[in-house]
Amino acid sequence: MVRWFSGCAARRWPTVAAPIIVLLLAGCVSPAIDHEGYLGKVHQSATKMEGIIGVAQLTGQLDLQNKLLDSFSDTLITDAEQDAQSVVTSLGSVQPPDEPSTALRDNANSVLQDASDQISDLRIAQRRGDVHGMKQALHQLDTTLSEVQKLQDAQ
């Protein structure tokens, strides 16, 4: 009889469990009481999205260079797409406490949604083997990444 948490399996379970725990915690969003609190939510969302974009970009670049298996690229880009959608949904669920926060929300939602859509475009192009489409999505993500980084410094 094989013991599930012995040997190799015991060393692998933290590798599998850690990303799942991070994703579960990433979905937790507390309310914003004032503008400063809302700025913190936007900063947190932009920081998460910056990392997600980085994963998608690196995966796309390595895929274009034939340095990853297609199935592995697909998994990484699909996971990035789902994570990006989660960030958009999480920030969208926070009610802005005042008018300046509402304006910031509109801008942040637009930028974060663009990033999510572009990662979706990258996934679609990768699955189709569309090199031009992948390059176009990666170029768009470069532009959007700078907008996401600006959100981190929003006032």
Q: CATH fold name, please? A: Four Helix Bundle (Hemerythrin (Met), subunit A)
As a percent range, the share of helical residues equals: over 70%
Find the structural class using helix and strand composition: mainly alpha
Based on DSSP secondary structure assignment, what is the total number of beta strands? 0
Q: Strand count, sense and closure of the main sheet?
A: none
In total, the number of domains comes to 1
* CATH hierarchy: architecture: Up-down Bundle
Write the SSE topology.
Layout: H1 8-26, H2 35-64, H3 70-92, H4 99-128, H5 131-151
Helix pairs in contact: 2-3, 2-4, 2-5, 3-4, 4-5
Structural overview:
This protein is mainly α. The chain has one domain (36-151): Four Helix Bundle (Hemerythrin (Met), subunit A), CATH 1.20.120. It is 79% helix and 0% strand. The protein has five helices and no strands. The chain has helices spanning 8-26, 35-64, 70-92, 99-128, 131-151. α2 packs antiparallel against α3 and α4 packs antiparallel against α5. Residues 1-5 have low confidence and may be disordered.
Report a brief summary of the structure:
With 155 residues, the chain is an all-alpha fold.
